[in-house]
Amino acid sequence: MKLKPGFQIILFLLIYKSAEGQNIKIKIDSIKSLVSDINNTKDYQIKELSSNNGDFGRDYQTTDGGESLEGFYSGKDLKKIEMWVGLSNRIIITDFYLNNKSVIFIYCRIGKNCLVLK
Protein backbone atom coordinates (compact mmCIF):
# COMPACT_ATOMS: atom_id res chain seq x y z
CA MET A 1 0.00 0.00 0.00
CA LYS A 2 1.42 3.34 -1.05
CA LEU A 3 0.72 6.44 1.06
CA LYS A 4 -0.19 9.76 -0.50
CA PRO A 5 2.58 12.39 -0.30
CA GLY A 6 0.56 14.70 1.97
CA PHE A 7 -0.13 11.84 4.37
CA GLN A 8 3.55 10.84 4.36
CA ILE A 9 4.54 14.36 5.45
CA ILE A 10 1.96 14.38 8.26
CA LEU A 11 3.06 10.92 9.42
CA PHE A 12 6.73 12.01 9.37
CA LEU A 13 5.95 15.14 11.42
CA LEU A 14 3.98 13.14 14.00
CA ILE A 15 6.82 10.65 14.42
CA TYR A 16 9.41 13.46 14.58
CA LYS A 17 7.45 15.42 17.21
CA SER A 18 6.95 12.26 19.27
CA ALA A 19 10.70 11.58 19.28
CA GLU A 20 11.41 15.23 20.15
CA GLY A 21 9.01 15.00 23.11
CA GLN A 22 10.82 11.89 24.35
CA ASN A 23 14.17 13.76 24.20
CA ILE A 24 12.73 16.59 26.29
CA LYS A 25 11.42 14.07 28.84
CA ILE A 26 14.88 12.49 29.06
CA LYS A 27 16.44 15.93 29.67
CA ILE A 28 13.86 16.81 32.33
CA ASP A 29 14.40 13.47 34.08
CA SER A 30 18.16 14.08 34.00
CA ILE A 31 17.73 17.54 35.58
CA LYS A 32 15.39 16.13 38.25
CA SER A 33 17.99 13.49 39.09
CA LEU A 34 20.80 16.07 39.34
CA VAL A 35 18.70 18.37 41.55
CA SER A 36 17.76 15.44 43.79
CA ASP A 37 21.43 14.44 44.11
CA ILE A 38 22.38 18.02 45.02
CA ASN A 39 19.63 18.22 47.65
CA ASN A 40 20.49 14.83 49.16
CA THR A 41 24.20 15.59 49.58
CA LYS A 42 24.89 16.70 53.15
CA ASP A 43 28.65 17.37 53.29
CA TYR A 44 28.89 20.65 51.41
CA GLN A 45 31.27 23.41 52.35
CA ILE A 46 28.98 26.45 52.74
CA LYS A 47 30.19 30.00 52.12
CA GLU A 48 27.82 32.80 53.16
CA LEU A 49 27.52 36.48 52.34
CA SER A 50 25.10 38.50 54.46
CA SER A 51 23.91 42.11 54.43
CA ASN A 52 23.82 41.92 58.24
CA ASN A 53 27.62 41.58 58.21
CA GLY A 54 28.15 44.22 55.52
CA ASP A 55 29.36 41.59 53.04
CA PHE A 56 27.54 43.15 50.08
CA GLY A 57 29.34 46.46 50.51
CA ARG A 58 26.41 48.57 49.35
CA ASP A 59 26.08 52.29 49.90
CA TYR A 60 22.28 52.12 49.80
CA GLN A 61 19.73 50.60 52.18
CA THR A 62 19.26 46.85 52.28
CA THR A 63 15.95 45.06 52.67
CA ASP A 64 13.94 45.20 55.92
CA GLY A 65 14.79 41.68 57.05
CA GLY A 66 18.23 41.51 55.47
CA GLU A 67 19.50 39.35 52.68
CA SER A 68 22.06 36.62 52.24
CA LEU A 69 23.67 34.37 49.67
CA GLU A 70 24.94 30.90 50.47
CA GLY A 71 27.13 28.92 48.11
CA PHE A 72 27.20 25.15 48.51
CA TYR A 73 30.53 23.71 47.35
CA SER A 74 31.61 20.15 46.71
CA GLY A 75 35.37 20.55 46.54
CA LYS A 76 35.89 23.48 44.17
CA ASP A 77 32.59 22.90 42.34
CA LEU A 78 29.71 25.23 43.17
CA LYS A 79 26.58 23.05 43.22
CA LYS A 80 23.88 25.35 44.63
CA ILE A 81 23.31 29.01 45.48
CA GLU A 82 20.59 29.97 47.93
CA MET A 83 19.48 33.61 47.89
CA TRP A 84 17.45 34.72 50.92
CA VAL A 85 15.68 38.11 50.94
CA GLY A 86 13.67 39.38 53.90
CA LEU A 87 11.08 42.00 52.97
CA SER A 88 8.65 43.72 55.31
CA ASN A 89 5.73 41.60 54.11
CA ARG A 90 7.33 38.34 52.95
CA ILE A 91 10.44 36.23 52.61
CA ILE A 92 11.77 35.17 49.21
CA ILE A 93 14.13 32.20 48.96
CA THR A 94 15.53 31.34 45.54
CA ASP A 95 17.70 28.27 44.92
CA PHE A 96 19.94 28.07 41.86
CA TYR A 97 21.16 24.56 41.01
CA LEU A 98 24.35 24.21 38.98
CA ASN A 99 26.05 21.49 36.99
CA ASN A 100 29.39 22.04 35.24
CA LYS A 101 29.28 25.77 36.14
CA SER A 102 25.91 26.24 34.43
CA VAL A 103 22.53 26.87 36.03
CA ILE A 104 20.27 23.88 35.36
CA PHE A 105 17.27 24.69 37.56
CA ILE A 106 15.87 27.59 39.62
CA TYR A 107 13.39 27.11 42.46
CA CYS A 108 11.71 30.05 44.24
CA ARG A 109 9.72 29.99 47.47
CA ILE A 110 7.73 32.98 48.69
CA GLY A 111 6.03 33.13 52.07
CA LYS A 112 4.85 35.45 54.80
CA ASN A 113 5.98 33.41 57.78
CA CYS A 114 9.20 31.89 56.47
CA LEU A 115 11.43 33.59 59.04
CA VAL A 116 11.77 30.28 60.85
CA LEU A 117 13.46 28.83 57.74
CA LYS A 118 16.45 31.12 57.99
Characterize the structure shown.
With 118 residues, the protein is of the alpha+beta class. It folds into 2 domains: 1-40; 42-118. The chain is 31% helix and 37% strand. The chain contains 1 helix and 5 strands, in the order αβββββ. It has one helix at residues 5-40; strands at 45-50, 66-74, 77-86, 91-99, 102-111. A hairpin with a 2-residue loop joins β2 and β3. The longest helix is centred in the first third of the chain and has 36 residues, at 5-40. The radius of gyration is 22 Å and the shape is elongated.
Q: What is the share of helical residues?
A: 25-40%
Average pLDDT works out at: 77
Order of helices and strands: HEEEEE
> Would you identify the regions where 5 or more consecutive residues have pLDDT less than 50?
114-118
For the record, the count of structural domains works out to 2
Largest beta sheet: what is the strand line-up?
1-2-3-4-5
Q: Count of helical segments?
A: 1
Intertermini distance = 68 Å
| Proportion of residues in β-strands | 35-45%
Q: What structural class do you assign from the helix and strand content?
A: alpha+beta
Rg over CA atoms: 22 Å
Number of beta strands: 5
Brief synopsis:
This protein is of the alpha+beta class.
Supply the key terms.
118 residues; 2 domains; five-stranded antiparallel sheet; 5 strands
List the helices and strands and how they pair.
Blueprint (H helix, E strand, L loop, with lengths): L4 H36 L4 E6 L15 E9 L2 E10 L4 E9 L2 E10 L7
Antiparallel strand pairs: 1-2, 2-3, 3-4, 4-5
